[in-house]
Structure formats: structure tokens, C-alpha cells
Design a protein that fits this description.
3 helices, alpha+beta, three-stranded mixed beta sheet, GMP Synthetase, Chain A, domain 3, 78 residues
């Protein structure tokens, strides 16, 4: 799942080198944390969160094939 999020994010942003993805595995669910450059945060979230929702939909479709649950967290640096 980590690789899927990484590929999607790198194609959406203007600074693909700044994309960082971490995955934490649990018993039934995985948490995927996505961190991008500050100026690319709007590109990842999209208007009214549509892009983030689309990424989550693709991620959940891939995870359902493996009978797992995946949670995507978009991390904002301060």
C-alpha cells in the first residue's frame, strides 16, 4: 500500500523528491502517513478534499483485495 500512495503522490505534486510515505501495520488495519512539501499540500488535498477522497478510495479498493483496512493520514508540517 505504501508504494501505491507514493506513486500517486509523486505524480500529483511539483516536488516529487519531498514526498515521504510511512506505513504502520496493525492486526487488521494499516495506517499510511503521507507527507509532502508545504506548497504541494493543496494539490494532494484538492478542492473540497476531492483529491484526498479519491486517493483514499483507490487505496481502500486495493486493500479490500487483501482483506485489510487502510487509513490514509495526510501530515501537515508546521
Amino acid at each position: 500500500m505504501k508504494e501505491l500512495v507514493q506513486v500517486l503522490a509523486k505524480h500529483l505534486v511539483t516536488k516529487p523528491d519531498a514526498v515521504e510515505v510511512r506505513e504502520t501495520q496493525g492486526e487488521t488495519a494499516s495506517v499510511v502517513e503521507l507527507k509532502v512539501a508545504r506548497e504541494d499540500l493543496g494539490r494532494i488535498i484538492g478542492k473540497q478534499g476531492r483529491m484526498a477522497k479519491s486517493i483514499r478510495t483507490i487505496l481502500n479498493a486495493a486493500a479490500s483485495r487483501a482483506n485489510r483496512k487502510v487509513i490514509l493520514e495526510i501530515i501537515e508540517e508546521k
